[in-house]
From TrEMBL, chain A:
Pfam families: ACP_syn_III_C, FAE1_CUT1_RppA. InterPro entries: 3-ktacl-CoA_syn, ACP_syn_III_C, FAE1_typ3_polyketide_synth, Thiolase-like. Belongs to the thiolase-like superfamily. Chalcone/stilbene synthases family. This is 3-ketoacyl-CoA synthase.
From TrEMBL, chain B:
It comes from Camelina sativa (False flax). This is Protein ECERIFERUM 1-like. Belongs to the plant acyltransferase family. Transmembrane segments: none annotated. The gene is LOC104717827. Pfam families: Transferase (PF02458).
Amino acid sequence: MSDISSSVKLKYVKLGYQYLVNHFLTLLLIPFIATVAIELLRMGSQEIFTVLYSLHFEVLHILCSSFLIIFVSTVYFMSKPRTVYLVDYSCYKPPVTCRVPFSSFMEHSRLILKDNPKSVEFQMRILERSGLGEETCLPPAIHYLPPAPTMEAARNEAQMVIFTAMEDLFKKTGLKPKDIDILIVNCSLFSPTPSLSAMIINKYKLRSNIKSYNLSGMGCSAGLISVDVARDLLQVHPNSNAVIISTEIITPNYYKGNERAMLLPNCLFRMGGAAVLLSNRRSDRWRAKYKLCHLVRTHQGADDKAYYCVMEEEDKEGNVGINLSKDLMTIAGEALKANITTIGPLVLPASEQLLFLSSLIGRKIFNPKWKPYIPDFKQAFEHFCIHAGGRAVIDELQKSLQLSGEHVEASRMTLHRFGNTSSSSLWYELSYIEAQGRMKRSDRVWQIAFGSGFKCNSAVWKCIRTIKTPTDGPWSDCIERYPVFIPEVVKL
Amino acid sequence: MEASPVTGVRLSSVVPASVVGENKPRPLTPMDLAMKLHYVRAVYFLKGKRDFTVSDLKTTMFTLLQSYHHVSGRIRMPENDNDPSSGLALPYIRCNDSGIRIVEANVEEFTVEKWLDLEDRSIDHRFLVYDHVLGPDLFFSPLVFLQITQFKCGGFSIGLSWTHVLGDVFSASTFMKTLGQLMSGHGLPELVYPKTPEMTSHDHNDEAISIKKIESVGNCWLLANKCKMGRYVFNFSLNQLDRLIAKYTTQDQPLSEIDILYALIWKSLLNIRGETNTNVITICDSKRSTTCWNDDLVISVVERKDEMIGISELAALIAGGKREENGVIKQMIKEDRGSSDFITYGANLTFVNLDMADMYEFEIKGGKPDFVNYTIHGVGDKGVVLVFPKEKSARIVSVVMPEEDLAKLKDEVTNMIM
């Protein structure tokens, strides 16, 4: 009993401390305002007018002061960065003909790798512990025995994913193709000529003065890099909108060899894509869902270990695959630390920052053995979207940031239903939170993505209107079943 | 035709559109195990251009498999089972949504019409159906293979290879009929799975003579025949059938057409093989005509005593002397506990009554197939005779028999009809 009462006492102490520090200025101002109010009430209206007249305000003084105020406020509003609004987004839902149940994936692996029973065993163990469900999807070309990944099949997959997502976005937002000012496409591993952005411009007959960009090779965090590019462009171009397409085309990248470190992506990567509409127009403010508060990019590429940890290379037989090194989790942890160090001061409330600072000073000056204080990010954000890179990534981040099961639920359920869809997974997770009806006005969302290089990018969005539970979207037919319990090991 | 005219073979898998199997086990009953080494094979021909494509067929299969959980499953043997708590000693099907295998192929030299004009109907089953067998890797062997072959004219054939543990010819044809209905835009029917039959104990101490016990085939569920088997399709015209009935029926002894056909072929084989080898025949009937599970099969035997030798007498014997052996079969298989295997078709000369099955019920958007050819694969050395329903101009009787017997059978039957 004493344990419970002491922990309850501690909780109240913490709450008191947080309230005190975070509202410090307000608390300071209250006695000051109270004094002034009492004085004014005591003086009475006649005395107030006398005091005012005695200050000898001349017309010139009043005019200059007002001009000064107007001038300062104009400079302030002009130099303020334009707010970037996220009007709406749509996530691609693959057709049922692309479904890959566990047993079917294992059967195909077994038949393709029939000369390597050890590799098949390895894949089986990965799949059992992967956290993926029975409804993830692979593109049609991969359903053949052996897979038939031609360039035409890859283009078909790109068209299927991108055009469906874009049409859904047009329907949701009422956007007309001719009104798109900026188009950014990110797809890491498939980069044909002409580019995917050119493919979209051709299909929808977009304007000839469109600003189009195609980012390739930037890994799973490229979605947030695209948002960063869009944000910078929207500062320079007033009254514009930007469409971002984040996807990963699986067809040409299915690893056909049997090197174990390279088989892992086959087990985790699945079809998916998202289309996002950003805008800096004041008129969009009323229908936009979110506004972008911060976007922080950190790159660990200067460190060799980080650079080599996710490497696309050929195996001994000449098959191209992505080699994931064994210290991937350690490097992800360090990249996260670097990112948090930058984003912490921008988003954490004063109470946490003070605690962190005092713990830092304490460790440096008094005792290096003190445990480093990990700021409580749950106070800065209501929702977390952690890139669904794999079960290990989500577990690692849950531990480092001390998040509860509910905070990482969006990531785990996205991994279960859609697999690792690379850069678009953050949008599926956001869609999950909306579909569960948890997104309220002024909720803040933190999206964290990791990518090859090694990069850690994060974005902070603030919800500007309470979102009604959507009736369409990728989760519409299955949200009642979620959240599901995902066992540690699934027996095949 | 010796060399295969089929080119461009591509294999892929089709799974149920949503999670349906949930990894549940479906036990195989003793009747299923009596049929375990047999495969139903069918080829449906559709001439000319149609208003649907191969990918439409594939897409519809995803929806169809949502109803057929057990068809999408895989065999599990009790020894290498990962889940010891399932408590089953016989093999079973784990409904794990693995799906069926689809084969896409082309035949460039023939149009459907030219193909059907060729004399030898065994080419249908040699080339247009994938040579599917369960095993040696039972864990990952599909239970159904579907081959879609495109011909020069734009028409195509659908070749189905259906493991008999899933059900008999009726269940296979219902599967195809449901596919046709889905393609034509009708809804998905609910498949009613049979309740587990009660394990009634019979006081039979006799052995069943309709099935034959053979050595366990291990992990490859295929029967090894001592001689090469051939296939032939007899086309009895309506005139010939009328003459037969007239010849062998008498006023006081009305006989059905089917019994007369059975007797005709039995008599021919008596002449070919001699009397000692062909004293017993097996007759397979089914209690229902749609979605027939192996437990709905009625397997009977007819034993001939030495005196009866004429077709009328044989037909009368068949009509009156059938002895049902289902109970004995189940007893025999249960007592065996999986140590050996059994065959039904071909253990004796076997006749399968398919009179109630309408193969031409398969219909896509109003278009019926131009020809349907059903057979059984994995038949014992005594052979199997499938009797199909009477159509507008003929009745088809499909025969699977050792090749040397087949040649003589053709002559015998021709003589008897004259």
